[in-house]
Amino acid sequence: MLRTDTVVRNEGMRVLLENLGKVDAERFISLIIKEPFDYTKWQKDLFGDMSVRDLSRNAMEATQE
Description:
- The chain is an all-alpha fold.
- It has one domain (5-64).
- It contains 3 helices and no strands.
- The longest helix is centred in the N-terminal third of the chain and has 30 residues, at 5-34.
């Protein structure tokens, strides 16, 4: 099911606020807006050579914390 832009935006803000708090969430948004942002490059740099299996395991562990 494809979610609307508004739903994605609201969910993104909720996640940022819950995990970063108000100040750092705003700071994160400011950083993203100030810099040219290539999500594909960022994602490759973020996960590096991590396998899908390792990524999945890390995600599962994070949800259990």
